[in-house]
Automatic annotation (TrEMBL), chain A:
Keyword vocabulary terms for this entry: Flavoprotein, Oxidoreductase
Domain of life: Bacteria
Domain Fumarate reductase/succinate dehydrogenase flavoprotein-like C-terminal, first and last residues per copy: 520-658
Residues of the FAD-dependent oxidoreductase 2 FAD-binding domain: 49-459
InterPro entries listed in its UniProt record: FAD-dep_OxRdtase_2_FAD-bd, FAD/NAD-bd_sf, Fum_R/Succ_DH_flav-like_C_sf, Fum_Rdtase/Succ_DH_flav-like_C, SdhA/FrdA/AprA, Succ_DH/Fum_Rdt_flav_su, Succ_DH/fumarate_Rdtase_cat_sf
Pfam families for this protein: FAD_binding_2 (PF00890), Succ_DH_flav_C (PF02910)
SUPFAM superfamilies: FAD/NAD(P)-binding domain, Succinate dehydrogenase/fumarate reductase flavoprotein C-terminal domain, Succinate dehydrogenase/fumarate reductase flavoprotein, catalytic domain
Protein name: Fumarate reductase/succinate dehydrogenase flavoprotein subunit
TrEMBL record, chain B:
Cofactor needs: [3Fe-4S] cluster; [4Fe-4S] cluster; [2Fe-2S] cluster
InterPro entries registered for this protein in UniProt: 2Fe-2S_ferredoxin-like_sf (IPR036010), 2Fe2S_fd_BS (IPR006058), 4Fe4S_Fe-S-bd (IPR017896), 4Fe4S_Fe_S_CS (IPR017900), Beta-grasp_dom_sf (IPR012675), Helical_ferredxn (IPR009051), SDH/FRD_Iron-Sulfur (IPR050573), Succ_DH/fum_Rdtase_Fe-S (IPR004489)
Species this chain originates from: Janibacter alittae
Every 4Fe-4S ferredoxin-type domain range: 149-180
Record key words, sorted: 2Fe-2S, 3Fe-4S, 4Fe-4S, Iron, Iron-sulfur, Metal-binding, Oxidoreductase, Tricarboxylic acid cycle
NCBIfam families: dhsB (TIGR00384), PRK07570.1 (NF005746)
Protein name stated in the entry: succinate dehydrogenase
Keyword Metal-binding: yes
Matching SUPFAM superfamilies: 2Fe-2S ferredoxin-like, alpha-helical ferredoxin
Length: 659, 247
């Protein structure tokens, strides 16, 4: 195996986070904020920050930095910051408020997050996330986010997959929307105040580095096609995740990896890229034309019971006609103490297992039925249809609209789908990447979720990073300035801009025979098949081969119509798919080298006798941070693996058990 | 099923647009409307033609990015977003006209893509609560009666897609505006700026070139999120009250 691996990468120097202060974990963040340098108020407008992305992390960061008085430039590819994909998050946001007096605490939220992530996230960052969670709720309520309330006027909570306390705040099934609108309104307020300049329908295509520091970006105005140079003292990437590498995912159509990948190519390490969360409760695929998958909030698992027929011959029957004793409530059977609320990776994999056994339900796609029932019949009987409608009404409507079936009468069908990536650019405790001055927030960084993300924790991380962490850590970076002015017309900057123009020109001039989407679909198929829910060495080796040939064909045979000087959606997609084709290979290399199972990453070579994921702490309790190495042609060569050992001082590293 | 599409094609804001006819065969009833356009675009690219530009992103009915006039109705014949409209709504052999949002406050960028920046500028003019990060009291310090919280939530469901404007014969943005006024006005946090907010937002609305509201109700009828017409009454009430206050 070692021999095989050395074909694909080399190992470099280990790395470590040096920013977390050496004090007990509950004092760490307070200490770091105190140690961080200050920028006095009248000097702040002289410091500038570029923020790429306007989701929960980017929107909140831009608004907060604007409030503090820095000069901020905010970029998004959508027509308005309010459209960022955070808006689609349904279920809720965790906070260790202990409003229910059910034993919650900062430490418990931290503990659950570490455990949920299979001990592959960094302890210090995760603790801070739990620590600031309570402030997030206060902040959002003050902004007017209409969280669900009880009749006494106080906030309501619910419980979520993987935990045994009620700490999730929610706004029906539209929590992401409401939180994002809160951040968006705060951002618009700063735009009005003149502290933030907004650039919509702009896409970052390159990072500008001068004297080893991130100093700006090259962005394309998607309407006019013009390439623009923007410089600043620091750059924040809050550009979301790269789940669209799988083509079918729950991500928005435009979600892409370009901002992160361009930074990676310039020296930012990409950490744990193979850590993809497969979400257990999505609407199953219906046909070839399908453009994306729709998630049904995981909160549904609070009241829905998951089952498949015990016998394969019952799979095409009307589920209401399958007798109770012929149903297999497999999660309740295998994991009695968590039942339907087991963590996402377990729920996902078990769904795959029963479908692989031929007990899946719903229409056949290929030779298999890929779906399991999520049944509300007993909840409706117990609580009444109105109570269920009140809790999940919009989700049920959405399901009905997409499938044409009424979930109040017939059980829903669900199947796992790619939802969120835990991998991302490597950052230290300050959320600074391996390039000084380049900060990374939200889903775009790697630090907080480990190998699996707990339900309702992505919104928490986005807002924690944006509202509370970055504004304090960037302050330290800016206080060490002033940094010399970057001349937008310097040869170094002009060279970066010219490289972007060349790449665009190249894409438009190939004039091949295949559409961009056809490449994207083929890549997605390879990724899902060999680097999805279950992987093994043989499949990953094959995938790397397939991706390399596909990439070669892409640059020879893609057909991108139109020109560069206008709105050209094919061109936008082509640039993104080109980057996905490089990222996909790195994901497979990362998955290949990590021959343990952890979180959502199930290596079939590493399992217990009863088929559970088997982690290998002896060999893999580290973050894999990859450094880009180009070959002579500038294409991806052999990446360099830098290991960051994960140390657990505040928490004991244990095998997970949800039995 | 087979369909005839008449799609608005327009190269840019300065060029003249036209309806172009495309025949579609083998359309699956389970496709979303946008997936049907995806299939058409794949064909156009393969045939060496320019694909149709249209906006979409989440395709889950929540980001508000998509929006087409489909046979004269905003988001088509059902009360939903364009991305959630499925082809099972249409009948075999139907002729469907596809146009961009029609309103001078939403200028055309290309084909079916319009510029809705005016909505952002309306929010910018006061559609927020002025609270700096880190300055918030404990969330339980201010109870909000459930009925107010629920009404605020109902109004806050607006996704800013612009269907209300496109559907209105006056191209008025009052439903969008009323939704924000109602959302923030139902909450104790929103009271301090209540009067100033409504005045500056209405001013900005008018300045952007949206028309006045004459209570036709097409906006609410077309709203994919079912924002009720009474948010406009709320807006008018707040505006009257603001006239009498010394904001």
């Amino acid at each position: 195996m070692t021999d095989t691996l050395s074909e694909f990468f080399t190992e470099g120097e280990p790395i470590a986070d040096t920013k977390a202060p050496k004090v007990p974990i509950d004092k760490m963040w307070t200490q770091r904020q105190f140690d961080a340098g200050l920028v006095q108020p009248t000097n702040r407008s002289k410091s500038s920050v570029i923020v790429v992305g306007t989701g929960l992390a980017g929107g909140a960061a831009a608004a907060t930095l604007g409030e503090a008085g820095y000069h901020v430039k905010s970029f998004c590819y959508q027509d308005s910051p309010r459209r960022a994909h955070s808006i689609a998050a349904q279920g809720g946001i965790n906070a260790a408020k202990n409003y229910k007096e059910d034993g919650d605490s900062t430490y418990r939220l931290f503990y659950d997050t570490e455990k949920g992530g299979d001990y592959r996230s960094r302890e210090t960052n995760t603790y801070r996330l739990a620590e600031v969670s309570a402030n997030i709720i206060d902040q959002c309520v003050a902004q007017g986010v209409p969280f669900a309330r009880e009749y006494g006027g106080l906030l309501d909570n619910r419980s979520f997959g993987g935990v045994q306390v009620s700490r999730t705040f929610y706004a029906r099934g539209q929590t992401g929307q409401q939180l994002l609108i809160g951040a968006y309104q705060a951002l618009e307020r700063q735009i009005a105040a003149g502290t933030v300049d907004e650039y919509t329908r702009h896409e970052m295509l390159e990072l500008i580095i001068e004297d080893g520091r991130a100093r700006g970006i090259v962005a394309r105005d998607l309407v006019t096609g013009e390439l623009e140079t923007h410089v600043a003292d620091a750059v924040v990437l809050a550009s979301g995740g790269y789940g669209n590498v799988f083509y079918l995912s729950t991500n928005a159509m435009g979600s892409n990896v370009t901002a992160s990948w361009r930074a990676h190519r310039k020296g930012a390490y990409m950490a744990n890229p193979c850590y993809t969360q497969i979400h257990p409760t999505c609407i199953p695929v219906a046909g070839d034309y399908q453009s994306k998958l729709t998630l049904m909030s995981e909160s549904l698992r609070n009241d829905g019971r998951i089952w498949v027929p015990k016998r394969a011959e019952h799979c095409d029957k009307d589920p209401r006609e399958i007798a109770e004793e012929d149903r297999d409530y497999y999660l309740e059977r295998k994991y009695p103490s968590f039942g339907n609320l087991v963590p996402r990776d377990i729920a996902s994999r078990q769904a795959k297992v029963v479908c692989d056994e031929g007990r899946g339900v719903g229409p056949k796609v290929g030779d298999f039925r890929r779906g399991v029932y999520l049944d509300f019949a007993s909840a409706i009987e117990r609580l009444g249809e109105d109570a269920i409608r009140n809790k999940y009404g919009n989700l049920f409507d959405m399901y009905m609209r997409i499938t044409g079936e009424d979930p109040y009468k017939v059980p829903m069908r669900i199947y796992p789908a790619v939802h969120y990536v835990m991998g991302g650019l490597w950052v230290d405790y300050d959320l600074q990447s391996s390039i000084p001055g380049l900060f990374v927030a939200g889903e775009a960084n790697f630090s907080d979720h480990g190998a699996n993300r707990l339900g309702a924790s992505a919104l928490m991380q986005g807002l924690a990073d944006g509202y509370f962490v970055l504004p304090n850590t960037i302050r330290d970076y800016l206080s060490k300035g002033p940094y010399p002015q970057v001349d937008e017309n310097s040869p170094a900057v002009a060279e970066v801009k010219a490289a972007v123009a060349d790449r665009t020109e190249k894409l438009l001039s190939i004039n091949g025979e295949r559409t961009v989407d056809s490449f994207h679909k083929e890549l997605g198929h390879i990724m899902w098949e060999y680097c999805g829910m279950e992987r093994n060495e043989e499949g990953l080796l094959k995938a790397i081969d397939l991706i390399r040939s596909l990439r070669e064909e892409f640059w020879r045979n893609v057909n991108v119509p139109g020109s560069a000087d206008t709105l050209n959606q094919s061109l936008e997609k082509a640039g993104r798919v080109a980057d996905f084709l490089e990222l996909g290979e790195l994901m497979c290399i990362d998955a290949l080298h990590r021959s343990e199972s952890c979180g959502c990453h199930f290596r079939s070579e590493s399992q217990t006798e009863d088929g559970e994921a088997l982690r290998d702490d002896e060999d893999f309790a580290y973050v894999a941070a990859w450094e880009f190495q180009p070959d002579e042609a500038g294409l991806p060569g052999k990446p360099v693996l830098h290991k960051e050992d994960l140390t657990f001082e505040a928490i004991e590293l244990k095998q997970r058990s949800y039995k | 099923m087979n369909l005839t599409l008449k799609v608005w094609r327009q190269e840019g804001p300065a060029t003249k647009g036209d309806l172009v006819t495309y025949e579609m065969t083998d359309v699956s009833p389970d496709m979303s409307f946008l997936e049907m356009l995806d299939v058409l675009n794949e064909r156009l690219v393969t045939e060496g033609e320019d694909p149709i530009a249209f906006d979409s992103d989440c395709r889950e009915g929540i980001c508000g990015m998509c929006g087409l006039m489909i046979s004269g109705e905003a988001h088509g014949p059902e009360r939903t977003t364009t991305c959630q409209l499925h082809m099972r709504t249409f009948t075999d052999g139907e002729v469907i006209t596809v146009e961009p949002w029609r309103a001078s406050a939403f200028p055309i960028i290309k084909d079916l893509v319009v510029d809705r920046g005016s909505f952002d500028r309306i929010i910018e003019s006061g559609g927020y609560i002025s609270v700096n990060t880190g300055a918030a009291p404990d969330a339980h310090a201010t109870p909000v009666p459930k009925q107010n919280a629920d009404r605020a939530f109902m109004a806050a469901e607006c996704i800013g897609c612009g269907a209300c404007v496109a559907a209105c014969p006056n191209a008025s943005g009052m439903l969008f505006l009323g939704a924000k006024i109602t959302h923030l006005g139902e909450l104790p946090q929103g009271q301090a700026e209540r009067s100033a907010r409504v005045v500056s937002m209405v001013d900005q609305h008018d300045e952007e070139g949206f028309g006045g509201c004459t209570n036709i109700g097409e906006c609410s009828h077309a709203c994919p999120k079912g924002i009720p017409l009474d948010v406009i009454s709320q807006l008018n009430a707040d505006l009257r009250n603001a006239a009498g206050s010394n904001r």
